[in-house]
């Protein structure tokens, strides 16, 4: 594995996944889940790759992800070093969907409190466990402050 490249195994136990080769342009693993309500446990999850442009792709690095589950479901996006984001309303309604977590904070649970503005009309996940030690603490806050625009 090259320094800075994602590992070949997803870090998410909820959706174990492994690849022989990490796509060359993948930034890291993310976990995409769906829930029946904001407070319910995920009913389905999939590990996927985050790409440099912010899109999420399947384990081959080029195809869309697929979650097979029916119902009006909330979408949740998790990254191991950031606080999770969730749609403010159900977005999965028994069909294919495309949802941009970065375009409008009003579409997210918590609105502007759920994300950080990274540029004009662009929002990103708030860093959480920035040093990846399994604990969100003062060191993470220092790292987060250095990443703010």
Describe it.
The radius of gyration is 15 Å and the shape is globular. Strands 1, 2, 3, 4, 5 and 6 form a 6-stranded antiparallel sheet that branches. With 149 residues, the protein is mainly beta. Strand 2 and strand 3 form a beta hairpin. Helices cover 7% and strands 26% of the residues. It has one domain. The chain contains 1 helix and 8 strands, in the order E-E-E-E-E-E-E-E-H. The protein has one helix at residues 138-147, and strands spanning 28-35, 42-50, 56-57, 72-78, 85-86, 92-93, 115-119, 122-125.
Secondary structure elements and pairings:
Layout: E1 28-35, E2 42-50, E3 56-57, E4 72-78, E5 85-86, E6 92-93, E7 115-119, E8 122-125, H1 138-147
Antiparallel strand pairs: 1-2, 1-4, 2-3, 4-5, 4-6, 7-8
Helices and strands, in order, run as EEEEEEEEH
Count every beta strand, where a strand is a DSSP E run of 2 or more residues.
Answer: 8
Evaluate the radius of gyration. Answer: 15 Å
Percent of residues in β-strands = 25-35%
Note the overall shape: globular
Largest sheet: 6 strands, antiparallel
- Which runs of at least 5 residues are low in confidence (pLDDT < 50)? none
Q: How many domain units?
A: 1
Helix count equals: 1
Q: Distance N terminus to C terminus? A: 30 Å
Question: What percent of residues adopt helix (DSSP H or I)?
Answer: under 10%
Multimerization state = single chain
Structural class: mainly beta
